[in-house]
Specification:
By secondary structure, this protein is mainly alpha-helical. The protein contains seven helices and no strands. The chain has one domain: TerB-like (Orthogonal Bundle), CATH 1.10.3680.
Length: about 130
């Protein structure tokens, strides 16, 4: 994955975190950990808050599903889920070109898991179901 894709991923996550008007410390720390996992240093990451990177469409469906999972984790990191967040994550999934039924099913099963965190294998099984 190139730097443009990495910065685009982080910009999308930052935008989602900002959607309720403020980024909480727990959200910032979660985002920073993602930045570090994908090889983006703190200085570059912090600059994205004032200078968002251009949107890059992730080429593979698996990359888009991973990004959708990151968004789910981010939504749940503060343990407060607003209706607006659910609508926004739904719209982001659609904009990524993900299957609407898989998105809906994921959001439907989310409360069945501790802290609303859908395990990666469950998420992948849901998406596989709707693509076969």
């Amino acid at each position: 994955m190139g730097i443009d894709e990495k910065l685009s991923i982080l910009t999308e996550l930052i935008g989602f975190a900002k959607s309720d008007g403020k980024i909480k410390d727990v959200e910032y720390n979660f985002l920073l950990s993602i930045a570090q996992q994908i090889g983006v240093n703190k200085d570059t990451f912090d600059k994205l808050f004032k200078n968002p990177a251009p949107k890059v469409v992730l080429p593979s469906e698996s990359q888009r599903i991973v990004q959708f999972h990151r968004l789910l984790l981010l939504m749940n990191v503060d343990q407060v889920i607003e209706d607006e967040e659910l609508e926004k994550i739904h719209q982001l999934g659609l904009k990524m070109g993900l299957n609407i039924q898989a998105i809906d099913k994921t959001l439907d099963v989310m409360p069945q898991y501790k802290n609303n965190i859908v395990p990666p294998n469950v998420l992948l099984d849901i998406f596989k179901t709707y693509y076969n």
